[in-house]
Amino acid sequence: EVQLLESGGGLVQPGGSLRLTCAASGISLNANAMSWVRQAPGKGLEWVSGISGSGTRTHYAGSVKGRFTISRDRSKNTVSLQLNSLRVEDTALYFCARDRGALVDTGAVDYWGQGTLVTVSS
Amino acid sequence: QSALTQPASVSGSPGQSITISCTGTSSDVGTFNLVSWYQQHPGKAPKLMIYEDTERPSGVSYRFSGSKSGNTASLTISGLQAEDEADYYCCSYRTGDTYVFGTGTKVTVL
Known about the structure:
heterodimer, A: mainly beta, seven-stranded mixed β-sheet, 11 strands, 0% helix, 50% strand, B: mainly beta, six-stranded mixed β-sheet, globular
């Protein structure tokens, strides 16, 4: 069974940092691009960031560019998202998701984790 | 980065067909055949229902179909069933190697 498991969420003050990690079981993530998608409480989905299968190409939504950094560890079969300079509006459930291809250019992700909750509040 | 536009809600009776629209621009929906659709039940992760405008992943019911005309993509659910009640989101590749989701549509089975 394919499973993606996110971890690292929690409560943090505005301006603080968190590191989210996505681990996979039942599947290798190394051939596919990966994305992080977030969902604020009661709101819709927002694509946040993506990384190619090789890890050499990274992409960000305008709302997080310069504050978030995506990376992957092919030896550990994991993908991470470093969240810096957090704002109240970054509060959301963060999902990791596997892209259908090796690059962030298919427009579709086919496997999703259950998400990890990030709450930014003073 | 503005989201793709979807109706907030669509409803139908069991057995009927409904269609959800997703309007973008020439930077996303109108240029690339890369629109996907997701179903999300409350408290659950989204599930891929359609990719590349019209393709259905293995295991997804034939009652779900996708289409596109110009800058607007559509998801049609035929033979509506109670289990189809959920939120639905479109997503498109956008110029610059980013993805953009739609605003989401709540489907209610009357």
